[in-house]
Amino acid sequence: MDGLLLSSTVERTTDKRLRISWAKRAIPLKNSTFFNKAKHSEEWHQNIEATAGVLHPSHPKFPKAFLRNHTDVYLRKKGNINQADADIRFAILIESHQARDIAVAAAAHAMTAKSLRALLHAELNVAQGSYWGLDTWLQCLIAANDGNPASVTDLEAEWARSLLPYATHGARAAGSYLKGVSRALRKSKISNMSVLPEFSTLLMRAVADYSAQLEGFRLKCQWLAAHEAVFWMVELDKTTPMTSPDMLLLEHILDAQFPTWRLWANWRPDIHHIARLA
Fold this sequence. Notes:
The protein has helices spanning 2-26, 33-52, 64-78, 83-96, 100-107, 113-118, 122-125, 134-147, 154-163, 173-188, 197-219, 223-230, 250-257, 261-265, 271-277. The chain is mostly helical. The protein is elongated and about 70 Å long.
């Protein structure tokens, strides 16, 4: 009987020691390298979000210096890491941050121009068809130019600022972008779009989307919607020659990519009549 009691006591004691042992092993996990890495990243996300608040890179009071300071603190906590490692870390942080433009503003100065530029391709940031992400992408260009001028040119940043008022998403996005490009071209007076490759990519996409949209309105006899979509074209020069000039205009691009644009630009329907037909 005493043997049974002793055996039971030993088993309980051993079991208790095992539980204590596992508990003790679990406590140091909070101080592990893995935990610290996650903690540093989470702190960085929280700090830049709180610092930026509702402001974005285009705002004159945007706290860019304070945001960069959070990145410098993050790097000091990480210790001695090389530039390649830093580029990878910040690429991951930027892509995982909800407000990507804020993340770019915070980390641009700590990345190589090549690595930062790779994150800013229009095709990767602006959704096909809906143009979701266009405004954020433009803000990212502004932030990158300010923090790392070698990654984004001054002309690109200037265009980003010019096009922000026209950045929208949905059915009117393509037409709105074309309207903004028309005004930006007249302002910047460039001879071709090769100096703005990402904007050129979006421009070709917008022309195709816009022409397809108008053709859809025509086929479905949606004349009110068509009139709303082409109303901005009154500001285009309907007499512009088709030859390439020293100063590129949207009209020249439309002549090459959307030849029937002049018909739409000159269309002056009786609004009351088409409203009755709707």
